[in-house]
Write a structure and sequence with these properties.
Distance between the termini: 42 Å
Strand content: 15-25%
Number of strands: 6
Helix content: 10-25%
Number of domains: 1
Length: 177
């Protein structure tokens, strides 16, 4: 993928709106896919729409295509440098080895998109940050991306919504620990 075609995660004119750059990139790959249900970087609050979208089947498709030689490592290991930086400093261990290089443990990075957030999204680093987003008046869509530091594998793992208080939705809170 050419650098000009890559989504921008730095908020400098990126894709804007409520669409995750990771989801747009994987949507362009019709034969590729996303992450297993497994360890979460932190406990998820109750989603606004009552559910979480998991991309495990899509991930399995990508990994199978790579192992069969249908796609190359360069096609699936294309993490943006900003995503790698965020994974290094704000990522939470996923408890699983990279499916491409079998090297480092994967980390999950969570991004939030919604009104009154930067156009390029906001990286959610802590449970407290997630709680604050869940108490917002407007709805926020969160995307969890798995990333490997060694080979730059990255894939959209799951998507969920938070917030929405004051617009016809009941208040959502984090589950008790």
């Amino acid at each position: 993928m050419r650098a000009a075609d890559r989504p921008r995660l730095d908020g400098s004119g990126g894709l804007g709106g409520d669409t995750c750059p990771c989801e747009q990139r994987t949507a362009r790959r019709t034969t590729l896919g996303a992450v297993p249900q497994g360890n979460m970087p932190y406990e998820l609050p109750m989603p606004a729409n009552g559910g979480t979208v998991e991309y495990g089947l899509r991930r399995s498709t990508v990994v199978s295509a790579f192992r069969q030689g249908t796609v190359t490592a360069e096609e699936v290991c294309d993490a943006h440098p900003e995503l790698l930086r965020m994974a290094r400093y704000a990522g939470k261990p996923a408890g699983e080895a990279c499916p491409i290089c079998d090297g480092n443990e994967l980390v999950h990075v969570t991004f939030a998109f919604g009104s009154r957030l930067p156009a390029g999204g906001r990286c959610v680093a802590t449970q407290h940050d997630l709680s604050l987003l869940g108490s917002r008046e407007g709805e926020v869509t969160c995307y969890v991306v798995e990333v490997c530091h060694s080979c730059s594998w990255n894939h959209l793992a799951r998507r969920f919504s938070l917030g929405g208080q004051g617009i016809g939705h009941p208040a959502r809170s984090l589950p008790a620990r």
